[in-house]
Design a protein that fits this description.
By secondary structure, the chain is mainly β. 2% of the residues lie in helices and 35% in strands. The chain has a single domain, classed as 8 Propeller (Methanol Dehydrogenase, Chain A). The strands form five sheets. Strands 11, 12, 13, 14 and 15 form a five-stranded antiparallel β-sheet that branches. The chain has a four-stranded antiparallel β-sheet with strand order 1-2-3-4, with no helix packed on it. It is globular and about 55 Å long. The C terminus is likely disordered.
């Protein structure tokens, strides 16, 4: 695989269309010539639920490669591969994974580790990734800032522990997004089996502090998005909340930041203010 340009976020860019506008080599003529075939394969240590990311003309451990592919696995590992040959250039396993059996709800595999797509800040050579690791009875989530050249932590990982959110029944699934010098980290209910403690939470974090917007404090208005990232092409972002399993409580004066299942939410990039634009009644 050899791509022109970089792929630093889920679905290529913050428009989230999935269109790689930098692609100039893959044409109908190439597809018909018989040259479109597998170039290489590579061994990984666990399931991959995150989209691979790509940097072009990237230095890894002192050598520059035309294309470097970064892949994160549920084993809490991050790999860097030569995109032309499939050769592994670097690997790091950041923390132990959470066994699926320990949370009382099935997963696609035995491990819960890096479940979301990381994001790369190419200007600063940093790959941000969120891990899940055992911590007593609950998983602990950490934001890591990895050097794209070595895959080493640039600084101490930041604990992500939004207040009032049960990390036993919430999962960090949707992809990360760069935002005002930090990272937007969506959490969502997992398995939808506990309406009293599973809801959507949008965390804003850098390597020194965190803040959180809870979609609703009492029901399953989640930010699942099937692993996709929030669309953020300019100063305003829109995302849809998931569905609920019971009646939806209305906003109150105590919960002005709350959303509702099925609602379309707008977040302003400059002020981080939010509002629910469309409410879809529960039936």
């Amino acid at each position: 695989m050899c791509l022109a340009g970089n792929v630093t976020t889920r679905s290529y860019d913050n428009f989230r269309t999935g269109w790689n506008w930098q692609e100039t080599t893959l044409t109908p003529a190439v597809l018909q010539s018989g040259r479109f075939t597998q170039l290489a394969s590579a061994w990984l240590d666990d399931q991959v639920d995150a989209q691979p990311l790509v940097l072009s003309n990237q230095n890894v451990n002192g050598t520059v490669f035309a294309t470097v592919v970064y892949v994160a696995t549920e084993n809490n590992s991050v790999f860097a591969f030569d995109g032309s040959t499939g050769t592994m250039l670097a690997k790091v396993t950041l923390e132990p994974f959470v066994p699926s059996s320990s949370i009382g709800c099935g997963n696609n595999g035995q491990a819960i580790g890096i479940n979301s797509t990381p994001v790369i800040d190419a200007a600063h050579g940093t790959l941000y990734v969120v891990t899940a690791t055992p911590s007593g009875s609950y998983p602990a989530y950490h934001l890591h800032a990895l050097d794209v050249s070595t895959l080493k932590d640039k600084t101490t990982p930041q604990l992500i522990a939004p207040s009032g959110v049960s990390l036993l029944t919430n999962r960090q699934r949707a992809a990360l997004t760069l935002f005002n010098g930090g990272v937007l980290i969506p959490f969502t209910s997992f398995c939808d089996h506990n309406p009293g403690s599973t809801f959507g939470t949008l965390v804003y974090a850098n390597m020194t502090a965190t803040a959180a917007f809870v979609t609703t404090p009492t029901n399953l208005a989640t930010i699942w998005m099937s692993g996709l990232a929030r669309r953020f092409p300019a100063i305003t972002s829109f995302f849809r909340l998931g569905t609920a399993v019971g009646p939806i409580p209305r906003w109150t004066s105590q919960h002005k930041s709350a959303g509702e299942p099925g609602a379309i939410v707008r977040v302003d990039r400059q002020s981080t203010q939010s509002d629910v634009l469309i409410r879809i009644p529960y039936t």
